[in-house]
Amino acid sequence: MKIRAAVLSQMGTPAPYAKTRPLAIEELDLAPPGYGEVLVKIAAAGLCHSDLSVINGDRPRPLPMVLGHEAAGVVEKLGDGVTDLAPGDHVILVFVPSCGHCPPCSEGRPALCEPGFAANSAGTLLGGARRLSRNGVPINHLLGCAAFAEYATVSRRSLVKIDKALPMAEAALFGCAVMTGVGAVVNTAQVRAGASTAVIGLGGVGLASVLGATHTFNASAPDTVEKIREATSGGVEYAFELAGSARALESAYKITRRGGTTVTAGLPPPSATMPLSPLNLVAEERTLKGSYIGTCVPSRDIPRYVALYQQGKLAVDRLMTGTLKLDQINEGFDLLHEGKAVRQVILFD
């Protein structure tokens, strides 16, 4: 079938993107779903900094590629072997497909799925196929989703069925921002009620992780670390770095108290490094942990988080800055690049 999609053919194109147009809206061919795959009509897709990191070259990916990984839609057609979904079901796309049988999956850690990681790195679906093409030439899928498009063929392992009562614009945000931010707090760190916490980096993921706040600080001020340590009697028990910056992670580590835990879910460029004192790590019994997609089991956690939102306990709708049409995607990434938007969502008719 013919679809319209946002294609990235070159990384590192300078801003403003409204002028340089790194994402071209093109007509592509989309193959029907193969075994274990599903055709999804995309209803909403969020603009995330991880997409921007591919556009600007911070996180290289095989090109050409259709971007977009935070999305929700409606099941259109099932491939052979898919028996637990039906056309018309509402689903959220998950950007790490889980095979279910590799060592991490067997241990209940699908975020670390090894075949999923390999497929994402190669720009394919979990089974190794590319279902997108242009004039017969294959086009890569970002993180098995390629959601900046009218339709997407994805692995069944990249989908979670959701309540049809959930508006699609909000539903899309659960696929990355909410899953990563909330999961970092409740799964990775397992923060105790009443514990002191701090979040550095208040984009979509960072704001999703803030379950309550009493103080704010300007992270760029030269004395911020000292002020936070003073306000928290020596540092917080849990600090979260969600800015995708090695400098921010260093600050998060410095504001964590003795015996505390520092969690990072940000994704800086591969070349980024941070100094760390092993003596400090041991003598103060510190913990430094990474968190990928919030250490989530998506089929378990996304329905839980949706229920919390529907109960008024997660303000997911407040993450949304505005909505766009697919043709406005480059302008949307300008706003994200300039820090003028938290989450913008492309709505498809």
Question: What does this molecule look like?
Answer:
The chain is of the alpha/beta class. The protein has 2 domains: 2-161 and 315-347, Medium-chain alcohol dehydrogenases, catalytic domain (Quinone Oxidoreductase, Chain A, domain 1, Alpha-Beta Complex), CATH 3.90.180; 180-294, 3-Layer(aba) Sandwich (Rossmann fold), CATH 3.40.50.720. Helix content is 28%, strand content 26%. The protein has 11 helices and 16 strands. Strands 3, 5, 6, 9, 10, 15 and 16 form a 7-stranded mixed β-sheet that branches. Strands 1-2-7-8-4 form a 5-stranded mixed barrel. α5 crosses α10. The mean pLDDT is 97.
End-to-end Cα distance, whole Å, is: 17 Å
- What's the overall average pLDDT, rounded? 97
Q: Return the structural class.
A: alpha/beta
- Name given to the CATH architecture of the largest domain: Alpha-Beta Complex
Largest sheet entry: 7 strands, mixed
3D shape: globular
Full CATH superfamily name of the largest domain: Medium-chain alcohol dehydrogenases, catalytic domain
Remind me, CATH topology of the largest domain? Quinone Oxidoreductase, Chain A, domain 1
What's the SSE pattern?
EHEEHEEEHHEEEEHEHHEHEHEHEHE
Please tag this protein with its features.
349 residues, alpha/beta, Quinone Oxidoreductase, Chain A, domain 1, Rossmann fold, 2 domains, 7-stranded mixed beta sheet, 5-stranded mixed beta barrel, 11 helices, 16 strands
